[in-house]
Amino acid sequence: MTIKKVLIANRGEIAIRINRTCRELGLVTVAVFSDVDRRALHVRYSDEAYLLGPAPSKDSYLNIERIIQISKDHGVDAIHPGYGFLSENFEYAKACEDAGIIFIGPSSEAIRIMGDKETARETMIKAGIPVVPGTEGKSNLSDAELITEAEKIGFPLLIKASAGGGGKGMRKVYKSSELKSAIKLARTESQSAFGDNNVYLEKLILNARHIEFQILADQHGNTIHLGERECSIQRRHQKLLEEAPSHYLNNHPELRQKMGETAVRAAKAVNYENAGTIEFLVDKEDNFYFLEMNTRLQVEHPITEAVTGIDIVEEQIRIARGRQLSITQDELQINGWAIECRINSEDAYNNFLPSVGVITEHAAPSGPGVRIDTGVYNSYEITPYYDPLISKLIVWGKSRAQAILRTRRALEEYKIVGIVSNLPFHQNLISQTRFMAGNYDSQFVEERFSMRKAEEGKETYPEIAAIFAALSAYRRTELSAHIIRRAERDTSNWKWIGRWERLHR
Amino acid sequence: MTIKKVLIANRGEIAIRINRTCRELGLVTVAVFSDVDRRALHVRYSDEAYLLGPAPSKDSYLNIERIIQISKDHGVDAIHPGYGFLSENFEYAKACEDAGIIFIGPSSEAIRIMGDKETARETMIKAGIPVVPGTEGKSNLSDAELITEAEKIGFPLLIKASAGGGGKGMRKVYKSSELKSAIKLARTESQSAFGDNNVYLEKLILNARHIEFQILADQHGNTIHLGERECSIQRRHQKLLEEAPSHYLNNHPELRQKMGETAVRAAKAVNYENAGTIEFLVDKEDNFYFLEMNTRLQVEHPITEAVTGIDIVEEQIRIARGRQLSITQDELQINGWAIECRINSEDAYNNFLPSVGVITEHAAPSGPGVRIDTGVYNSYEITPYYDPLISKLIVWGKSRAQAILRTRRALEEYKIVGIVSNLPFHQNLISQTRFMAGNYDSQFVEERFSMRKAEEGKETYPEIAAIFAALSAYRRTELSAHIIRRAERDTSNWKWIGRWERLHR
Amino acid sequence: MKYITTIDEQEYIVELIEPGVVKVNDVEYFVDFEEVGGQNIFTLLINGESFEAHISEGEANLWKVLMQGTLYEADVIDEREKRLSEAAGHVVKGSSIYMLRSPMPGMVTNIPLNVGDVVEAEDVILILESMKMQNELKTPQAGYISEIRIAEGDNVEQNQIMVVINPKED
Amino acid sequence: MKYITTIDEQEYIVELIEPGVVKVNDVEYFVDFEEVGGQNIFTLLINGESFEAHISEGEANLWKVLMQGTLYEADVIDEREKRLSEAAGHVVKGSSIYMLRSPMPGMVTNIPLNVGDVVEAEDVILILESMKMQNELKTPQAGYISEIRIAEGDNVEQNQIMVVINPKED
Fold first, then answer.
1. pLDDT < 70 stretches in chain B
2. Structural domain for A322, as ranges
3. Please, are residues A297 and A83 in contact by the beta-carbon 8 Å criterion?
4. Contact assignment for D3 to B473 by CB distance below 8 Å
5. Is the pLDDT of residue A172 over 50?
6. Which chains touch D (3 or more CB pairs under 8 A)?
7. Which of A145, B89, B302, D58 has the most neighbouring CB atoms within 10 Å?
8. Extents of the domains making up chain C
9. Beta bridge pairs of residue A361
């Protein structure tokens, strides 16, 4: 099929990520944007750009009709949905199909099946793929029904949004007294994130690892995986750091083999086409369970790109064009190790509360093995309308040790000024003995990690900090004195404020 | 040998490049800096930093005594010289050896032989390696002797600094009438760059390609090459863009094989140890000639890192520690393609004149396959004291085509404000048909390329530029009017200056 | 000039002797302190050791020093201020009124408590929806709710005072 | 407001009709023009097409527009200015005095010419050493050397006038 002009129905780092590959392929790129995104990089990097509407997602990036209309009006051949927003909305994929526009992703039918987490679980059970025990076979449960089911499943358990993804609308419940308010919270969050307040229950598997497989499937029946990603570093089901490959599976190659085959089988069970991800939980006894399938490009796809050399967005477009995958399963080679840190505008010292404001300085690291995917720049404003992801730091090393040390080095260099970021979280995490040993599961961040504890272990420099603070206090006094007494005194009262500054005055 | 603390005797991007690997290896890093470099990244990224002296190189980065003294005073085990400055000064390497400090590079003897370009040529001739015909066997020639020799060699010819490197002190001469003044210029430049005004002559081989091989050699007799780099894109013998591998050698695998073996033989002829580069000229008949050996890390080493996955600085430190190389010649695999663009503060529209000033905005590209090595940041000042290299854009792709398209994409995204850069040169070059076809030699930039000609071929948008210019002129008028009439009028006379700006007022 | 700097309850007396020389708890150091690019990033060489920090000024003499991934909260007062505050008598810690402000614009989706309710430190006071997340806002100190200035469903601005917590009456 | 914009000797009449609408040589376009981050980088949407440029103001109504790796030098005057300049009579091109200024700080290492020497466009006037390079400075116009204000070995500041070239007397 001919694809010459692609509309990227997204914003932020992922819109830019997709835009980059499109431009490298010589495609004409079309951006869409909300009022507050007029100056965003995805608008500026595109050949064309059209306004969707006001800032709130429901008025802009979730407006199916408007996006389809723009596509029709401007001769768009294909739409790339990115992740989040409409990417896993089967009605949207259907609307594209109906309008004769190629949807760069799976069929609306595959999205529908996998997008409704309950239907997905049933489909997997039929295909003989293990799932986490829960409320399978029962849909649209009321609060009362959920409470009854919960007692059967037992605690701890998880409430999950049927339309879910990305940890939104998800809540852990440890005892039945917490259940009711947790259901309410999960429903509210799900409604706001996906426009659907259906939830279901799953047994909470403790000390599990979250490991996922990247799938690619073309229209010619070729379905392969590109190896796994270890995503157990999470907080409230939000991934914070991912690695490829998984340290655990490196020591359990038969398990990796089996999980990879199962992932491919799961994708085939829904006649999956394009890129997708099968998420598994692995328990302490090496049992693994299908968790869900993300029927879209994943936030953490770059670490797979780093260890395989494959541009996953390029493959998505190949597939959408009806071509064969560029590699076969046998040709797949995993080369080295990659780590992604999600840099969020969140205050790790204050309950990970989001931070909004203008980024006055974004000094990103670079050098060997370092990739940054971001939509921010100096003077960029983080607004409360969209998710708090500032950038993704993706680091490659020839071994896991090198990747970790390189990540540590890169984090040291990274400076973000104007808003509060979670860089200190990553800096503390990366130096934890358990992390370095690869000895962690998906409870690690919530249960075994705290900023204070992490900092207790490491070498600190309170004396140096005291000097910094005292000199800053002195400087502020001098600066104000200087403004007040500018006429009376020369610049010599700046004597503490830097030799170089004086030289260049 | 024990290396725990490394002094990096350099500045700018290469000091940071070396610093990064040292930190990844857990080494304590020591920076040295001149007066104007107090706030430079190499100072800020290091564990320790000591002042060398005033800005001019001779008072700071070329001060051997001071660097050795700092090393002794602060327990430095090893010195990494980087490139330029003292890196190819055998007396400096000797001073390190005498002080019991490990010099991360070859022996002072190897530097001496290869550093004096005339001695190097003689040594190669003895080892049976072809060199470009010239004034071999004759040193310290006077102007008169050079003029006599020139007539024997014939025109065109090249005047080269005996102590040379990096194109400094080099002049092409096409007819005998130009010879005298060219010798004078070359001597002056060589004196200023290397503190030595000796020059020699070489036949100028027209339409030659400049292809070099990266050498690694350990203390255990293992000498290997990491493949070649194609460096024919030059202007006045200054490399501007390099590729690895060479498109030409890709089509001539036997020639590559032979050149690689010769390069290893050349390094062995001087008992070479550590990283180095053998530069060759390849003429139209596939004859190749030894040009010189650079006995240090090369500016363009990252493209070799990109296609081999090897960290060359890490190998240098391994070698200096007395360990074996991490790979053998047989294990070497070249994976994909890499291109480096040297981004200089030079005005491509005005005879490549250097530009000095403060970089007010450095918005570097990133994303898949893109690496930036730089020492600049927002508010960094480019001074006239050091070379005009702002940054190196290093791009990897799985094929040459992908690498080129990705480079083009990255250059589009790159913004440097405050000084004039040669980004437009690279943008024009990368889109030239001859470049894309790999059909170029070392005369290409000077003889077949001009900014005007390059821009004639491509799609331009003068009408859009006219709108930009007219709106800017209007904006300037409105801004000044706004300042004058602030009291009288509201912000509505800003109506042209951006909806978003108004919304956020 | 002498500064009394307190970090994690440890006191550091930082004395500025002359340009380039400071004394910390009576040990002398050579320092070179420079700002970089007007962005509150500072570089400090201290006896040759190189440190970089991002420094922001909080309220009431509090300086936040973010260095090598660790946040130091430093209370800095100069000698004169210290004498003045000592003369005025100490403020008893933990006995002040706490105002829960909105850390960002958002919508209040849940207020599980009522005026008069007693709360412990780290209790959840309300849920604020922003950036597509349900954020639990907690109180750092114990006390009782004396005022609730917003209602469920309200949109709030950044820094808007939402709930007031008074110290427990002993 | 109407601007006469000349690029490469081609004239474009850019008329600002109302916010969001311009006419170029009588064709109407919808435009959305915004500055990014106060750094003279501008984004322009024109009938939906997206362009970005770095714009700097030169002397005498000259605007340099750097867009997609191409530099456009645009001479922009508004109608009123144009009428005034026409009334004052045209200046004959190429007949002005050229001042060779130093593009950067450096040291003059060679002046191959003398006062009175006739030069052609693109002739090398002097050699300036800076950034470790011998830079050849050329004249963009023909004429004769009327003044040399520096000597070999002199250090010069950025923008310092070094040599003056007068037009040839016909």
1. 165-166, 457, 482-505
2. 209-343+389-401+422-455
3. yes
4. yes
5. yes
6. A, B
7. B302
8. 2-79, 88-166
9. A417
Q: How far is B427 from chain D (nearest CA, A)?
A: 5
In a domain, A72, yes or no: yes
CA angle C139, C144, C147 (to 5 degrees): 90
Which fold, D2-79? Glycoprotein, Type 4 Pilin (3.30.700)
Top residue of B408, B464, B479, B497 to mutate, by most chain D CBs within 10 Å, is B464
Residue A20 confidence class, pLDDT cut points 50, 70, 90: very high
Strand C10-18 and strand C21-24: pairing? antiparallel
Question: Which residues in chain D have their CB less than 8 angstroms from residue A43's CB?
Answer: 43, 45, 50
Task: State whether B280 and B338 are in the same domain.
Answer: yes
| B243's tokens | 């590729």
Touching status, chains D and C (3+ beta-carbon pairs under 8 Å): no
Closest-CA distance of chain D to residue A363, Å: 15
ipTM above 0.90, yes or no: no
Tell me the backbone φ, ψ of residue D149, rounded to 5 degrees: -95, 0
Q: How many CA atoms lie within 13 A of A149 on its CB side?
A: 24
Q: Helix H segments across chain C?
A: 79-87
Q: Please check whether residue A373 is in contact with residue A394, taking contact to mean a CB–CB distance below 8 angstroms.
A: yes
- Taking the C-alpha atoms of residue D139 and residue D149, their distance in angstroms, rounded to an integer, is 16
Q: Is the pair A, D in contact (3+ CB pairs within 8 Å)? A: yes
> What is the fold of D88-166?
OB fold (Dihydrolipoamide Acetyltransferase, E2P) (2.40.50)
- D119 is written with which tokens? 């030069």
Q: What is the mean pLDDT of residues C141-164?
A: 90
Alpha-helical segments (H) within A296-422: 301-308, 312-320, 400-413
pLDDT exceeds cutoff 80 at A30 = yes
A460 touches chain C (CB under 8 A): yes
Rounded Cα–Cα distance for residues D118 and A185 (Å): 86
The dihedral of CA B224, B228, B234, B237: what is its sign?
A: positive
Question: How far out from the chain centre does Cα B214 lie?
Answer: 14
B501 touches chain A (CB under 8 A): no
Q: Do D156 and D105 contact (CB within 8 A), yes or no? A: yes
CA B29 to CA B7: how far, in whole Å?
6
Of B388, B391, B394, B376, residue with least CA distance to B352 = B388
* C-alpha span between C127 and C106 (Å, rounded): 10
Question: What distance in Å separates the CA atoms of residue C137 and residue C158, rounded to the nearest whole number?
Answer: 13
A424 and C CB contact within 8 Å: yes
pTM: 0.89
Handedness of CA B56, B62, B67, B68 (dihedral sign): negative
Residue B320, domain CATH: 3.30.470.20
Split into its structural domains, chain A has a count of 3
Buried b (16+ CB within 10 A) or exposed e, A390-400: bbbbbbbbbeb
The beta-carbon neighbor of A43 closest among D38, D39, D50 is D50
> Helix crossing, B400-413 with B423-430: angle to 10°?
150
Distance from the C35 Cα atom to the nearest Cα atom in chain B, whole angstroms: 8
Residues of chain D contacting residue B349, judged by C-beta atoms under 8 Å apart: 71
A291/A277 Cα distance (integer angstroms): 11
Which one, of B416, B442, B434, B441, lies nearest residue B348 by Cα? B416
User: How much is the pLDDT for A450?
Assistant: 84
Helix A90-99 to helix A108-115 angle (10° resolution) is 170
Confidence of residue A87 (pLDDT cuts 50, 70, 90): very high
